[in-house]
Specification:
The complex is a heterodimer of chains A (216) and B (485). By secondary structure, chain A is α/β, with parallel strands linked by helices. Helices cover 33% and strands 27% of the residues of chain A. Chain A has a domain of 88 residues: 3-Layer(aba) Sandwich (Rossmann fold). In chain A, a hairpin with a 2-residue loop joins β4 and β5. The longest helix of chain A has 17 residues. The radius of gyration of chain B is 23 Å and the shape is globular. The chains are: A alpha/beta (216), B mainly alpha (485).
Amino acid sequence: MSTIKNLFLKFEEFSIDIGELELLDQGVTALWGASGSGKTTVFRTLCGLIDCPSLEWEFQGERLDQLSPGERRLGVVFQSLDLFPHMTAKDNIMFAAKARSISQEVANKDLEHLSEVLEMNRFLNRKAHLLSGGESQRVALARALISQPRILLLDEPFSALDRDLRLEARRLLNSLLQEKPIPVFMITHDSEDIDELATRVCRIEMGQITSVNDQA
Amino acid sequence: MRRALGLLVIIIIFSPYALSFFHGQGLSFDISYNDINVFAFTLLQAFLSSLASLVLGFIAALGLIYSANRYPVFYKWILRPSCLLPNVVPVIMVILASLKVIDPFPFGFTGILLLHTLMNLGIVALSIQKIVSNKLSGLSEVSALFGASRAQFLFRGGLQTIFGDLAMVGLFVFAICYSSFAIPLVVGGSQFTTIEVLIFEQIRLEGDWAKASFLALLQAISIFVLCYFIPQKIEATKESFRRNQYLSSRIGIPIALIPALIIIIGLFGSFSMGMKQFLRLDLLRAELPGQILNSLVVAIGTGLFSFLLFNLIAFVFYRGTLKKIILSYAAPSTVICGFAFLIFGPQGEVSSLIRMILGISLISVPALIRLQFANTIYSLERQREVAVLLGASDAEVFKRIIFPQSFFSACFLSGIASFWAWGDFALSSIVADRSHTVALVIQALMTSYRLELAVLLLWLLLICGILTFALFSGIGYVYHKKLIS
């Protein structure tokens, strides 16, 4: 179990007040809330992009909050996907492998596998700025996973896609998680994401966790 | 590594102040009544110059929007470049062309205001166009549907909505005018001295380094504090604007064109008379190749050193105080920069050229950062965040993410710095002989009222400047094309 404690942040007209939150070791823990409820702030704080001196985040005996963003070894997919536009899809994915010093041999093998599962073969050598929304989404997911993360963090990962692509993306993510059972922390406002992906749902309102429910 | 390089950046940009401080063995706080008057005058001229630029720039911005809606080709190829022209060409070109076209020229306070406004009107108009298009388009359309007139919309809410953004643009112009040296030196006359000119006189005439350092520091701190505490609004550059039929005006088009027209008319007038004078002056003809070579060395050197500085700054420009310091730092005092470099190191022709390269780069780069480079780097901040989260080191992030994508911008802006270097006479006149470069010869001709000959040499300077600019931006363009293809 991964435990987040004392995530307290105060801004001018808004605050985050999370005393304790437990993330599952397997499956998807979803942080579900409306726009402005504080989801993204929580997400960015866990990534280490917002300073939060009170935060304690213990993951399998290790204090992640004491590590720099890079050292936390998180796989992250932002809402805007944020692929490096000047690189090809493959270069984007391999960038993450190289940054984590994963050997070329292992990285190539993982890339092959991810390409197959995420059906990326036909656009791997295309520049990122030429990819469609659905293709970019898959590349962002592969980039997050190839770095062998402790935990996968997803920030509204399907919100930029149209309905059909969202369905497809969820299916791909599900099949991927069957292959690689790593913990996932996903923030979303979409109830369909919850219905189809979430194992645990933590509801956030006005910066506070108001309910935690495990899905059947 | 990023911290060490950040420290290096701070040392480099503040080096002129540190050098003059140590040379003057401290600061002298001996301020006279006259000095306070000079401060007040400098503040007043900077305030009025920025106000005039804002008011005229706003009207010109409405013209830009009108033209972008109705005549997109004219907007893209004529009007927009015309607005950028006075800021991109060396100051000497604006001064000389204005002296030629506006006859009689109102020297003194009005002259300073006029030239500052002519120089900044275009860039202000482009900035306001962006603000109005992005922030007021929707609101103005809704107001129009409610039946409000344009004036009602602007004065009852529109201007208030963008007040903070306008203040930022005004501050940008204020900072330029507050520390302006070349324009007050040439057109200010003896009655109207600015702080920069006062610093110049303190060192050149009285040799009082301690007081000059104090004045320069006061000038720098006042701008720095103003910039530091006013919220910085840098945004990733948006290329496309919303079409806005309601907030546009054709009256703004001629206003936007005036500064560029003055420069062009000033350059084209009396070409033949200048040529006749040139053919009569054997000495000038004989010395000119050497002066061109010197100017070329300074221009290329400035471009290369600026490129290095841009990349150093791109490396360290990420969150935190350092980013804010870089954004708040307007530019060092030209005079302090010139004299500080003059007193250190060996004397000689090569040393003068190196001093010019260092000085012009240090003056140009902060302005170009505020003009464009901060937006470029800011637009990559999100990618930098992602790369850091993926575990990439600072060096890796720079090498694979920042450098490739900021290369074009850095090359383009280094090209502008090299263009400015061709035309620099303010700093050059402090660190070098009066006839060392083409710009210095032009200044000498200008001050002896041989304007036709000065204009002729200005053409030479323009052509050479465009060539070096094309060299730098061409390299950037080729790389950029390769990168995205």
